[in-house]
Amino acid sequence: MNVVLVGGTGYVGSAVQAALLSRGHQVKVIARHGRVLDGARLVPGDVRDMDLVTPFIDADAVINLVGIIKEVPAENITFDVMHVETVRRIITAMSATHVHRLIHMSALGTRPGAKARYHRTKWIAEDLITHTTGLHYTITRPSLLFGGGAPFFKMLQSQVKLPVTPIPGPGTSLFQPIFRGDVANFLALCVDTPETIGQTYEMGGPETLTLNALYDRVAKAIGKPHITPWHIPYGLMMRLAKVGQNLPGFPVSVDQLMMLAENNATEDRRWEKFSLSITSMQKDF
Ligand SMILES: NC(=O)c1ccc[n+]([C@@H]2O[C@H](COP(=O)([O-])OP(=O)(O)OC[C@H]3O[C@@H](n4cnc5c(N)ncnc54)[C@H](OP(=O)(O)O)[C@@H]3O)[C@@H](O)[C@H]2O)c1
């Protein structure tokens, strides 16, 4: 099938390209820059203003991966623009080209009234999708992804190397890290699995771990048997992040902190039924 992968050069996208190609699909990747795998084709452009109709002509399915974790308002990179307006533009272009199949990457914790604007805008996008008549959608909401150099785990790695590891809050929130390759395979499988149409899948990996346990895992993986944790109250972290989040090297954004303060785990295991593998967290973060 002809698949257009919007936002397909990033951390998740590179794995989705591989999964789609291995299933024999023709892959067109939209992003502003970056490289694509042999066999895929890059359509360079900015989703905020590019013509999406032309790349969608003859597509059988669109996968949307565009998402941000931190806003840069001065560059018009906001949650509203990147999460909501991008989806609106994609749906409009799909309607113009009579493409019906949309697989959309959301995130676990997405719900109306969520604290983090990341989650709230992901919810508005989901709502747009699920209320569009004639759209054959599948929505995925994974927990934290690991594998192949996940940005979040790289951040943990740099923190555990410090003599004292700053941990936001008590570190008791729960997470279900899920392997990037497993998510990528599932997204690729959705393209030609009609049973997934009209479904929203929450996705978690095989283990449920506290934030403290994640720090410990990462520390052990780099050969540090123990860390000295420094639990910084969320209120203080939040105030620091409000000032520092736009400075280079500042480790977390305000929205990330809000999300780290919540459990990010699900009992929805329906995705496993389709999965080629369910990968445990190992040393390759
Ligand atoms: N990583 C996780 O743990 C995780 C967990 C749950 C959900 N998610 C969701 O998964 C999706 C993919 O995440 P990721 O980690 O792969 O993000 P990423 O590495 O930042 O990749 C984002 C992709 O979007 C493209 N993009 C960004 N702005 C664009 C623009 N204006 N026009 C065109 N393309 C643009 C980027 O390419 P250019 O910058 O070159 O344009 C890149 O291809 C996101 O929706 C995210 O919310 C991720």
Q: How many E strands?
A: 13
- What is the number of helical segments per DSSP (H or I, 4+ residues)? 9
Subunit arrangement of the protein: single chain
Q: Note the run of SSEs as H and E.
A: EHEEHEHEHEEHEEEHEEHEHH
The CATH class of the domain at 2-145 and 178-204 and 266-274 is Alpha Beta
Average pLDDT = 96
Strand order of the largest sheet: 3-2-1-4-5-6-11
**Gyration radius, rounded:** 19 Å
The largest β sheet comes out as: 7 strands, parallel
**CATH homology group of the domain at 2-145 and 178-204 and 266-274:** NAD(P)-binding Rossmann-like Domain
> Strand share of the residues?
15-25%
Tell me the distance between the termini: 32 Å
Q: Determine the fraction of residues in helical runs and give it as a percent range.
A: 25-40%
CATH topology of the domain at 2-145 and 178-204 and 266-274: Rossmann fold
Shape: globular
Q: What's the CATH architecture of the domain at 2-145 and 178-204 and 266-274? A: 3-Layer(aba) Sandwich
Small ligands present: NADP nicotinamide-adenine-dinucleotide phosphate
